[in-house]
Amino acid sequence: MDLLRQLNHFVTVAEERHFGRAAERLHMAQPPLSQQIRRLEAQLGVDLFVRTTRRVDLTPAGHAYLERAREILASVDGAADEARRVAAGVVGHVRIGCVGSVTYSLLPALSRRLAEELPGVDFSFRGEMLASEQVEALRAGSIDLALLRPPVDDGTIRVTPLRRDRLAIALPADHDLAGKDRIRLRDLAGTELIVHSADRRSTMYDVVRRLFDDADLVPRIRHEVGETSTLITLVAGGLGVAVVPEPVRALALEGVVHRPLVRPVTFIDLAAAHRADRDEPHLARTLALVRDLTTC
């Protein structure tokens, strides 16, 4: 007989204080149950029960053994429940890295949705991460899921497309172009720009350079910054204009207006990424929830 069944039989007899009632509860005959308890006592080298013709009572050793037996059975039940919860993906820990536009536009709704639908999963967030930083963090294991702007040139990272965001222009509210409903890229010729940092391998920096190259324009870059919040703050300060993903509008800052970019109408992808060797159920459930939220 395995140990857990042995412990369960002992606890049942201890609770019923009667072999017949315990046997009925366990759906077995009384003589085999009595023999099993005798074998247990022989293995332990102590008497667990004082037997009479009417009932059985625990010895002091039996009381001590009962307490530990219940603890063991409870811990086994708890472990089984925990294993089922892990397999279902409803417990765990997920660290999520976000690019700047996601930090302000998607993260508030995402954090609420995760708390509501996966309350047993512990989530933490790192905002204002460039895509290159997120890929390095995924490799190092310091984040588990990245919400970033592709491309990702790394075969160890699995990328899941989420949506396409239109590009827009963020301008100081008193800028000459702020009165336009829409802005063409050629309208920005000679205009001072604020861009994400080239040194930190920003995806948006490459997008802006490519836009201007394709239009045979030379960008007049005044400032390079690392964070989207800093970029929009400098726009509000009148230091230049910026090409941004349209969701950056969520970072509502006084003194900044946003206008759609036309000619060309350009989009930038948003994707989720994680290490290809990661397949934990709670990570898969988190990714599914992110995909659902970004396709609503």
Automatic annotation (TrEMBL):
Q: Which GO terms describe its cellular component?
A: protein-DNA complex
Any one Gene Ontology MF annotation carried by this entry is:
DNA-binding transcription factor activity
Q: Where is the signal peptide?
A: none
List the InterPro entries.
LysR_HTH_N, LysR_subst-bd, WH-like_DNA-bd_sf, WH_DNA-bd_sf
Q: Where is the HTH lysR-type domain?
A: 1-59
Q: Name one Pfam family in it.
A: HTH_1
Alphabetical keyword list: DNA-binding, Transcription, Transcription regulation
Cross-referenced Gene3D superfamilies = Periplasmic binding protein-like II, Winged helix-like DNA-binding domain superfamily/Winged helix DNA-binding domain
Q: Which family does it belong to?
A: Belongs to the LysR transcriptional regulatory family.
Protein name listed in UniProt:
LysR family transcriptional regulator
Organism, scientific name: Nocardioides albidus
